[in-house]
């Protein structure tokens, strides 16, 4: 027996905005409390709109795997920047693109990018050696953003860009995406064609990016086979069935998409890990012992990573507590049943990995940082959809192996050279913006590195 949508429980909220004000002011705490109070499917009235928060792993399985085609994405604010890239597209177009791009994200191809990750981490650590010598504290998230930004720019374009260009492009990407993310949260936006300073800077950045990206695409199409990077893969990919290749516009959309999806998430997670380790001495010691016995001070290679299980558990537990994609939404194409309720076509469903990762039926002491939860014996038998930092099903993150390898390489490089400690007086809390980052800032001091 199913119940109608009107029977789904939820808070009443205020007359005009519903619960919109509470969702905006403290969404994480609010959503966790809703799940505890009302259960696994909660109705959220947001003024004119209604959203259904689905948190039970069975529901996530239904939405992302069993009936995934019935749940589509709608992200209109990102259209101009991302176009029809993998994150924002749907249907046949998405399927074709995913098929074309999947091989580039295969384990073996990703492993070939390890050298770039090591080189960029070396550059960052050389800066940190300076901070260690002078005893100067620094904001670690900024460092991580710069690192992951340079890694994605270089794995995308390899040596086609000079260092100066790579920095300019990285910054332009970043500023454009921050601007777009900010727009989603602003109530009163000047129209995009007004010459406000924000609009002008946005236009300038987007122009620079498009000019650079189209130039590089053009060069590559004329001289193929000289590089082994993501751009080469996008330019040469051919659909196995139709033999078709991507148009320059489509390649541009995918370049922007990979940049958007591929650096802030990883930078935030690396910053969270350092913050958590600075407050959990036991985990830090265990991690150092693992690195010492397997690596003995040298940089890791992809072949070492399976031999560093505790390192992976620390990453997994950090992604459980602070999944960068803390909320995402889908719109129903046709009606569907979630739990005991019948939802109509057109309904918006929200999934929150942050809330599901704290579901008391699957996670004892959900707020505590405990990497041991991911020991194989502990993890065995756990509902597969209770842990979804990269989502699941056909639309699972295509870059999950990339991100995991990047973190597994960077982390031992940092910890084998430095002791990282938090600077007192700078409390850190989760900041639910476009991604869930630690904030407002993460100030650290480093020792060692000689
Ligand atoms: C810790 C790091 C990362 C996390 C937690 C993460 C998480 C996610 C999640 C939850 C989705 C699904 C979004 C949705 O369906 O609405 C997603 C999609 C995606 N991610 Fe990631 N991601 C990470 C890193 C990366 C990296 C490094 C790349 C690329 C190099 C990447 C590329 C993508 C792309 C292209 C999609 C769209 C896939 C599709 O719909 O077919 N991500 N990611």
UniProtKB/TrEMBL annotation:
Its cofactor is heme. Gene3D superfamilies: Cytochrome P450 (1.10.630.10). One of its GO terms (molecular function) is iron ion binding. Pfam families: p450. InterPro entries: Cyt_P450 (IPR001128), Cyt_P450_E_grp-I (IPR002401), Cyt_P450_sf (IPR036396), Cytochrome_P450_Monoox (IPR050196). The keyword Oxidoreductase applies. The keyword Mitochondrion does not apply. Keywords: Heme, Iron, Metal-binding, Monooxygenase, Oxidoreductase. Belongs to the cytochrome P450 family. This is Cytochrome P450. It comes from Chloroflexus islandicus.
